[in-house]
Every structure is written in structure tokens, then in C-alpha cells.
Amino acid sequence: MQRFAPETPAPSADFIGAFETTLLPAYGVDVAELSGHSTRWQEDADRLLEAGVRRARWSLRWHRIEPEPGSFDWAETDRVLGHLHDRGLDPIVDLVHHTSYPTWLADGFRDRRYPAAYLRYVEAVARRYPWLRSYTLFNEPFATLFLAGHEAVWPPYDRGVEGFTRLLLNVLPALTEASRCWSDLLPDAQHVWVDTGEHHGGAPGAGADYAAFANDRRHIALDLALGHDLDPQRPFLRQILEAGGERLLDLPKARVDVLGLDYYCHSEWWYDGPGFAPSPHPVGFREVARQYWERYRLPMMLSETNIRGLPTDRASWLRYMLEEYEGALADGVPLQGFCWFPSVDSFDWDSLLARAGGRADPVGVVGVGPAGERVRNAFTGVWEAAAAGARAAELPAYRFQSPCSDQLTGLTPRLRHWPWQDPPVEEAVPPINVSVAPDAPSRRTDTEEVAAMPANPVRPDLVVLSHLRWAWVWQRPQHLVSRFADVLAASGARTWFVEEPMSGPVDEPELRVEQVGQVTRVWLVVPARPGLAEYLGFDADEAQDYGERLADWLSTQGMRAAPDVLLYSPMALDVAEALQPGRIAYDVMDDLASFLDAPEGLRLRQRRVLAEADVVYAGGRSLQRGVLPHRPDTHLFPSGVEAAHYEASRALREPRERRVAGYVGVIDERLDLELLGKLAEQLPDWTLRIVGPVTKIDPASLPQAPNLEFPGMAAYAELPQVMAGFDVALMPFALNEATRSISPTKTLEYLAAGLPVVSTRVPDVVADYDGVVHLADDAEDFAAACRHVVEHSREDRDRRLRPIQERHEWDAIAGAMYALLEASGARPGATQAVEALA
């Protein structure tokens, strides 16, 4: 590997190391774990010291430090910070890096518990490590809250100025209070405020006007924290105030000692019609740094930079940024550090942490090998030379390769003085020429291909193992399995719906059976005894032989050998394996581990199912995100609707004097009962009708009000009539662990019935029904929304619904899911099992 030695003794910049640790909240895994930094931190720190680096941005993992509210686990952090302190590597501790908050803050930065929890945590850190010299209390406040609150990219998936303002109101007061706390407890330590160093430009006219607006917007978080230039007539501040942010004008001033700017090629935007980045007319970091210096007059550092590309691309970007940094110093900008972020390749930033696919992000000083080992590359030596003191002009000027060469076209005029050279032969990537016949048909998607396969005239039986009972609320399993059963019956195969065991008045365990159309219900009844619940799980001690008993009985019923098995509960895996299945499918319809009274070991059992199943489906985007780290080929099939069934509700609707807001579904810990009670107070002239069975919660905990009704469960056939009695449909879900991953089936059912819908901000509802479902946060918002949407045009709502509904008919979903199962092939050993039973 080529190394570069500095020709000048004095370094041009004080280099700072850094490591990416952001938590992916939907998956419970962070980038430090994906990159191996969580276990190789000592090796990574020592590598910086060997390069002469004595400072590093080092994120504390709050989500690991405080796994339960108020319960701190300092063991790992003590080891890490103690080692850094002993070795002389000065950490700039980063207390909250993007979405790295504990998962029990289910609503993220919008969670009502966030301010108190954050202040408790930051004070605990300050008291435990009083020797710290530098700290960042909240990384990129503007960028983080903008992505989470304005752009709906990160949880809590809020949107627009109103959403951004909600997050600012919940986070900034706590942040400024934290600044005062640390200033008191660690008066000699420096607060490094880190945020994006942006610049916006545009073509004359509307483009330039919007660029001016965005250049004002980029400063809003720091300006509010410092009380700087809070003129209510500023364009973006005016919008914040109109959205209810008046309290932000009176924040106690934060202490900021150093301003860190994060600058990337995409930090500069250009507007000429739709905005795009990188800008084709960049002003460069030197000019951006000058602008921020003139505004704030604070000591500064380049707190992040990198480029996603080949090692030689990174080397040339380093040369460019170091040249800009040196130019800013020459202009009198007091820069105090240069940080290439991160020092080790990151992971999963190709999706902005929306998917946990374990994909390396090629931005680090060193790469990550298959076993997690650190891998040097052509960039490593260049960075080491710069860290040792080489100036920009002494670094190689490799020609950028695609796609960086296209992204950085706007830089070309600024780099004419460079002594360009081709990348080393071993680092060059030749272009790939693809010849496509002019009349070649486009390739079909995987789903289209399996759906187009010829029908199988001889199909195995299907055994469904479900935690839900067939005769209960008609949900996703009933919709799908009833359709599977019709297909199977045409080829002589049978469908068995096996439910969790029960206790009852029997002397010894026995199987019970009921035929419902083409589906045969089966469940085990075990002898009741004092203290034994009526409904048991597949893992109950009293039902340990459920699988063997079921297999023996099915063999007497003429079940076809090596059946397909469809799991709805991971706890039924042992039962499934006792059936010697040909194929196993797993339909992830709920995050069962987050439910009240979830069985111990469910999460570990789910990982085993994900590893062993032949096909895995997910019933929603959040559910899919949660299982992708363990099963990357999980197929997304959000729940659907039998539109014709619910459209009958429209003709049944009759005029009435009193408005009705209604809910249909299970009443359990996923509903926000406090919200329902307060909504009844807010709508005294309306009736709130909450239809469905009460389960897993005490019925006495239900709110009571003269206008609040709980009529009980309604059969599926009755739902159109029930919904005909509503004027507005409600989805008042609590935002907690149990709802973080739900994708409510009822959304499409309500809409098909012609009802306007008001919902809390369930992530999948926000992602899939923005602009169709009205979102509200509290009882007052719900009440206002109900009064507003009841007057909406049904025709306009149907127009927006139609393209969504066409993709989500249960018939199409069931067909595609079964086709994937048929295409998966038999499990190892299934052929031998068939032959043995023949």
C-alpha cells in the first residue's frame, strides 16, 4: 500500500477521528454493532493513536446505557472512556447521535417523556465523567429534527412545518437546559454544537427565492438556542411561530463554545424547478465556513466530511476539503479541527437507516472485512499522511470515478490547477457496457414471475398454526387462509387451522375439530385445574406433546404427506417440525414480542423461525424493517381489503341528528384509552362507539362517559352495517412498543366503507396513507379533525384512495403469497419423508 510522507513539518489541520453509532430504532441494532466497532473499539481507538490523532468524536450509546427508564448500565461506557482517558485520546462525547435514544421512548423525539428522560441522562453522564474536556449534547439538531419532523424520514415520521415545530418544542428547551447543566457541572469543558453546514442556490426567480428561504431555515435551531436574530418576520421563523412555536422565542440561552460544521458534497443544493444536490454551482466549504463565522463569531471545526465512493475518490475529496480548510484558515476563519467521518466504514446509510440490511457504506478511512476485520485501502495511507501533517497540495489528485465524477461536475472549474492522475490500475473500475436488443421485453418482477407459473394440479395440504382463533375477530389470517383453502380444495388438498391449546372440563388431553367452509379448525383441550388459565400458548407445559398428538391424528385423517405449514406464531415452531413439513412459511403479522404478557423467549424463537422458514412475509413496512436484519429476503405484503364487502356500507347509511365517531377492532393495550376518554369530553355532542372484544386489559379500565359506547364484538358479516352507523372512523392507537410496527387492516376497510379516518401517527399509517388519513396527536386535535373531516368530499377521498386500494385487494395478495410458497421448493429431507409415508 502506497504511503505519503509530509514535506512540511507543521500540520495544516488538527485531525479528529470519529465512529458512526446511530441506532436503527425499528430494529434494535446500531451501526456500531453492524460495523463491529462495539467490540473492536479498542483496536479502532489504538489505530487513531498510531496515526498521531489525539481527539475523536465518540458517541455514547444512550440506548444501551439506559435500557429501562432510570436504570443505567455504565459498564461498557466506563471501560471505553476509561481506556481513552488512560491512552490520551481526548473524546468529544456525543450524547445523542441522530435516532440513538432508548427504544422505550416509543414516540422518539415527540415522546412526552423525552425532555425529562434526556435531562436525567445528560446530568448522569456529566456527574459520572467530570474529567471530560469536550462534548456535543445533541448531534445535528436542525438536520435530525428536520428529517424526523419535517420530512418523515426517521421516527416519529412527522411532516411539514407543524411536525418540525412539534419536535423543536419537545427537544430544544431540554437541550438548552442541558447546556446550563453541563456548564455548571463541567465549567472548563467545551460545548461543541454540531450541525450541517449548508448552502442553497438557485436560478433567478423562484429558484433563487426558495434558496434564500432555505438559507434562512438552515440556522433556525442554533439561532433559537442562542437567542440570535429572532426577528418574527424572518421567513422560516414566521412559519414556526404560525405553527405554534412561540415558546421557542423565550428559551434560556445555550452555551456554545465551538461550532462544528458537517459538510458533504450534498450539503449544497440548487433550485431550478425541483431542488437537487449536489449543486452544479457549489460555493465550497471555504465560503460556507466564512458565512457561518460572520454570523456567529464562534471558534469552529469541520466536524464531518466524507464522500461515498471508491478509495481513490475519497482520497481526492480529502485533498479538496483540506484545500478548502486551508483557504478558510487563510481567510481568518478560526477552524480548530478537521474530522473525516467516520474512521471505519459505516453501514446502511444507503437507505438513511430505513432498512437494516447490513450493507457497508464505503466512506471510512478503513473498510470492514467479511469477519469484521479492518481493511486498509488506497485512501487509508492518504488520510494517515494528512493526519501526520501533509498539506493538501502534497496529496494525490486522482481523477474521480463514476458516480462521483458525475456528482462533482460542478467542482471541475475550481480544480483546474490540480495535477490530475489516473487511479492506480488496481483501484480503477472499468465501465460496464450493456447491450440491449431494441425490442427486448422488460424483465418482470419476482412477484410477476411466480404468479405466472403454471398451476400445480397436485398440492400438499396446508397446516396453519395461529395464535389467533378462527372464530374470533376476522383478521389477516382469516382473509388469507380462507382464500388459500379455496385454491387447495380445487386440487383435493385440505386446509387445517390449528389454534393454541385451551384448558377445559376433560379428563385427559383431546383434540377438538370444527369444519368451517373449506377450513378445518383444530385445537387441543387439556384438563383444567386451579390456577391454570383457560387460553394457553403453544409452549404451555400442559401441551408439550401437541405436535406429536396432532401429527398422529392428521395421519388418520388422510392428510397428504409433507404438508406446507404456515406459522403465525413463532412459539408453534416445535409443533410445525413434528409434522415433518415439506415447506414452512412465516407470516409476520404483528410484533408479538412487544405485546402485553408476551411469552418469554418469543424474540429468540422468532429469530430461529426467520432462519429456518422457506418463505417469510411481513404484513407492513415497519414489520418488514424489523425482520430484515435476520431475514433479508422477507417479502412485504401489507394487509388488504375486501372492498366490495365494505362498500355495501355506503348504501346502508341513513341520516341522523347526532354524529358518531367509531372504531372497530380489538380493544387492548394498543388503544390509547386516555385519549378516548378525553375525546369523549371534547365531543359532547357526538357519540363515540367502540366496537370489538376487550382482551388482555381489565374492562374496568375502559373510560366511562355518557357519549361513549362499548357494544362488544361484531361478526365480519355485520361490519358494513356497523360502519354505516359511523360518520367518522377512528384509529386512536397508543404510540408504544405494541404499536410501533402495526399496519392496521382497518385503515382500508374504513376507507372502502366511505368513511373519513382520523388516526394517531402510527408509522405505517403515516408512510402509506399520507394525504388520505387525517393525523392527530391528542384529544383536542382528534376532536377538531373529526369536526373537519366529516364535511370532506367523499368523491375526493375515493379518488385519492383508488390507486392504493387497487394494490391491496385480498384476492391478489393471497394469490401472490401462495405463489411464492409454491416457488420455494421442498425443504431438505421432505422428499425422503414423502417416500417413507408412501
From TrEMBL:
This is Glycosyltransferase. The keyword Hydrolase applies. Residues 38-112 form the Glycoside hydrolase family 42 N-terminal domain. SUPFAM superfamilies: (Trans)glycosidases (SSF51445), UDP-Glycosyltransferase/glycogen phosphorylase (SSF53756). Gene3D superfamilies: Glycogen Phosphorylase B, Glycosidases. Keywords: Glycosidase, Hydrolase. It holds the Pfam family Glyco_hydro_42. It comes from Motilibacter deserti. It comes from the Bacteria.
